[in-house]
Automatic annotation (TrEMBL):
It comes from Alterirhizorhabdus solaris. This is DUF1476 domain-containing protein. It comes from the Bacteria. It holds the Pfam family ATPaseInh_sub_z.
Length: 107
């Protein structure tokens, strides 16, 4: 194997590892923000767990965060929580930071 091949393999490995970490951070973030929203909706612990899982599933509808934001905002408004899209986006950003912190602590 040449040096070039070794470097290419190293870059491919690093890319795959970075993509895996990004996926894990997003999934954890969605679970955390689902738990946050469930708290605002005053759900029971069992309902909270189910809701957090539903938020994680919602992220598979389309690329990006819009599907998650749409679900959270729709559910919160339906539950008569006084909230706007900006606050949901802030919560998403905050939970993304927390998710990254949690996963880095696990390593």
């Amino acid at each position: 194997m040449t040096t070039f091949d070794e470097r290419e393999k190293g870059f491919e490995t690093a890319f795959a590892r970075d993509q895996d970490m990004a996926f894990r951070i997003t999934a954890r973030r969605n679970r955390l923000v689902g738990t946050w929203a469930a708290g605002l909706m005053k759900l029971t612990p069992a309902e909270t767990d189910a809701y957090a899982k539903a938020v994680v599933q919602a992220d598979f509808e389309e690329a990006g965060d819009e599907d998650v934001i749409r679900k959270l905002l729709g559910d919160l408004v339906s539950a008569n929580v006084d909230i706007d899209e900006a606050r949901v986006r802030v919560a998403l950003d905050q939970q993304s930071i927390e998710a990254r912190r949690q996963l880095l602590e696990l390593k």
